[in-house]
Structures are given as structure tokens and as C-alpha cells.
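Researcher: Please predict.
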Amino acid sequence: MTEGFDSVEPDAASTDGVPASEVTAAEIARLTLYGDAQARKVEELERAVGDLRHAVDARTVIDRAVGMLSERFDVSIADAFELLRAAARNNRREVRALATEITESRGQTPLEIAEAVRRSA
């Protein structure tokens, strides 16, 4: 017979009487929770970056449209922005959507803007 098969040996590496396997399982659980929390943070940051990109894109289109309106109607930038904002508000449209229409029309003034110009005159 071989010695040692019938005897149970204590866990070779134990910490304060806690078997190493339990310590390892607890550490794995802790690291899993930490990893999950980090993954959630990454997702939140990716969403925030997406939102910021969208805002910058919208602002770029709006600024371009305001510049075009300023030149087209010989008004200040502030007045051109107010013209765009008023036209969007009066026609229940998003400022960005109207600005996109202005930048894509290349020379033709959308009706909403023409009406806003007549009102402001």
C-alpha cells in the first residue's frame, strides 16, 4: 500500500487558517466585480464621447449655416444666429435640421428663413 492516500493533508498555502482555495475564490470574485465596474465606466465614457461628437457635429453645421446667413443677408453673426433660431422655433423644427438644410441648399434660402427675415424687417 502507498502511504498518504488515506490521510487528508491540510491545504499547503493557507492564510490565517483560511484555505488558499477560499482566498483565491474571494480574490477572483473581487477582481470580477472590479472588472465589471470598469467595463461600466468604459461604456459610460464611450456614450459621453459619442454625445460630445454629436454636439460638435451639430455645432459645426449650425456655425456654417449662421455664417452663410450672415453673408447672404448682410447681418451680424449674432443676428444670423437669432434668425436661424427664430425660424426653427416658429416652424417647430430643430435648429440643426434647419441649419443642415441651409448648408445643403447652396444658394436657395429655405422658406422658414425667408419668413423669419420678413418678420424681423
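Model: The helical segments are 20-73, 77-90, 95-105, 111-120.
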